[in-house]
């Protein structure tokens, strides 16, 4: 999981925005992973996380939603057999089973 989150890290973008003012005002994705190899979960939270979406220009939020949906799609593929709920505020983001990805356009 950590590898997926690191691959989708926006820390370099954050640093650029803070030092130059250029780009999008990203915030890091904070997450907790409660899965341990060999553990069998009956019910419980295995993975949880959150971030504030960027809002520095009119396209920033949409770029952020797409970016984090891609990240969460990869995490979902790695954490099989779990129930998932992904949302922006009170708007649920549906899972597209055919594309195996969260689709924020629906």
Topology (elements, then pairings):
Elements: H1 2-7, H2 11-20, E1 30-33, E2 47-50, H3 60-78, E3 87-88, E4 91-92, E5 95-96, E6 101-102
Antiparallel strand pairs: 1-2, 3-4, 5-6
List keywords for this structure.
single chain, alpha+beta, two-stranded antiparallel sheet, 3 helices
Strand pairing plus helix content: what structural class? alpha+beta
CA radius of gyration: 15 Å
The count of helical stretches stands at: 3
Low-confidence stretches: none
Question: Which strand order do you get reading across the main beta sheet?
Answer: 1-2
The largest sheet is: 2 strands, antiparallel
Kindly give the count of domains: 1
Report on the architecture of this protein.
The structure is a single chain. The mean pLDDT is 89. The protein is of the alpha+beta class and 106 residues long. It has one domain (2-102). The protein starts with a helix and ends with a strand. It contains 3 helices and 6 strands; from the N terminus they run ααββαββββ. The protein has helices at residues 2-7, 11-20, 60-78; strands spanning 30-33, 47-50, 87-88, 91-92, 95-96, 101-102.
Short description:
The protein is α+β, with helices and mostly antiparallel strands. It is 33% helix and 15% strand. The protein has helices at 2-7, 11-20, 60-78; strands at residues 30-33, 47-50, 87-88, 91-92, 95-96, 101-102.
């Amino acid at each position: 999981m950590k590898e997926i989150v690191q691959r989708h890290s926006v820390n370099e973008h954050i640093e650029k925005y803070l030092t130059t003012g250029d780009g999008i005002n990203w915030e890091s994705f904070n997450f907790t992973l409660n899965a341990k190899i060999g553990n069998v979960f009956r019910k419980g939270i295995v993975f949880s996380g959150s971030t504030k979406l960027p809002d520095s220009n009119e396209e920033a939020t949409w770029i952020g939603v797409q970016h984090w949906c891609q990240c969460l799609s990869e995490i979902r593929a790695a954490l099989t057999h779990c129930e998932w709920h992904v949302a922006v505020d009170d708007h649920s983001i549906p899972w597209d089973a055919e594309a195996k990805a969260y689709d924020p356009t629906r």
